């Protein structure tokens, strides 16, 4: 509750400080407009046409079920990968032997392309929610695992020894010594995995489901409707930006406030 109140209280200042991010998004829109003018609307419709198509989809109610299905699958796979990757990564980081044994496995998992996991998931789970959820989990898990492992392995031994020498209570050891350090590795991994989850779930839906943004993109591809394709891309990217910059990033800033206090 304290963290939520701090997040809500700091939200206006955080939004005001995001002018640089907004400027980069406007630059991206300008580049999009320029490419559209050069190549024509058949190849790339301009941003206004894409946003108008998205507005029509939302007004008609056609967008919401597809976005909800995609978000549900992405967040389910992402939540599983956060839980498993964080727990197993921290556990492996506490042991040098486990860390050494885990590294080749993580390399194998990270080197396996998501499309390979998708084909396996189709064979195991068939068409339905299980395939995109599993594919998201397989793609996001190693990213989070490595972040948690690095966070546990790089904890300053001198700091830990000093805390033990002063006989800090366990709660204080966890909250003031372990958590800030581990969180500085976990949050970037969580944010990177969130972007991966969003990309992978759309790819999986394209081949494995009858609903969701990926399935909608398959329909627009069949109709050669570039404007609707860009509208769906804008919708799913907008959801990702909202989740990252309105939820994860403010929480990360609040947890890492100790860096600013120590500077």
TrEMBL record:
Pfam family name, one: BPD_transp_1
Residue span(s) of domain ABC transmembrane type-1: 67-252
Protein name as annotated: ABC transporter permease
Entry's transmembrane regions: 12-32, 75-94, 106-127, 133-152, 173-193, 229-248
Keywords recorded for this protein, A-Z: Cell membrane, Membrane, Transmembrane, Transmembrane helix, Transport
Keyword Cell membrane included in the entry's annotation: yes
Species this chain originates from: Thauera sinica
UniProt record similarity statement: Belongs to the binding-protein-dependent transport system permease family.
Lineage top rank: taxon: Bacteria
Mode of membrane association: Multi-pass membrane protein
Compartment(s): Cell membrane
